[in-house]
Hints:
Number of strands: 8
Shape: globular
Strand content: 15-25%
Radius of gyration: 19 Å
Helix content: 25-40%
Number of helices: 11
Low-confidence stretches: none
Mean pLDDT: 95
Order of helices and strands: HHEHEHEEHEHHHEHHHEE
Distance between the termini: 42 Å
Amino acid sequence: MASPFNPKQAVPKDAQNMALLMGDVTLQVARKIIKGLPPFPPSSVVLDNACGNGIVTDAIIETQEPRNVTIYATDIGPTMCQATSKLAESKGWAARVKTEVMPAEKLTFADGTFTHSFTNFLIFGVPDPDTVAAEIHRTMKPGAYGCVTTWHRIAHEDALLAANEATRGKGTKHPVMMREMWKDPEKVKAVLLKAGFATVEMSQCETLLTPTDVDRWAQVAWSFLGAPVGGWTQPDEDKWDEATGIFRDNLVKHELFESDGKGGAKIKMVANVATLIK
């Protein structure tokens, strides 16, 4: 089976470039969530679902004692699990953080495993979010605490759509279009209630992305987020410079974007935070 086409200009989707793309915005959200919780009881068992670079794991490490917590960090990407393992080891938590490559749609944990479950900025990006929500619910203990986050407002979505239409034609489907419902807190809540949660409370959290090189950031962002539904094609490689230029130009004009005058910027992002009780 042939590998999917990938433009030669696209950067690798590895942990280093993921960190450049997102800065610490998801960590800012995770920190606010974790700091708002009481200390985890002894023998707490935590799921960091779709752990990425270990964002939620890192926020827990900052506030909890290792003797109190066991964290299971899962992700479909092996490099993300490796990055989380290295993070835990560097902070003295290697024995308390267990990583495993695993899709969120098919968690292998037994029913009622977790006292705390965190799914940070995943559910809007999967083909079957209802199954992801059901798996979160299934693997939590009765009375357990959970949290699911989505984006409410991000400047680069409008820029992605502008570049998509300009280089591929009006009507070309892009994954951002599929995520529109996840901006609405009430629609996020409805999906989670459908999964069986007894309580779902919605709130919002503002964060600030601060890339130091907007031009470089635009290249990384288009590499990670620019592909249309169906994947990259040869014309995307041929029009790479045009697409990334349109993406950047639309980004810097957005009301959430503020230049720092030195090639970098401050970009406000707003998250939906769903607090769950099973």
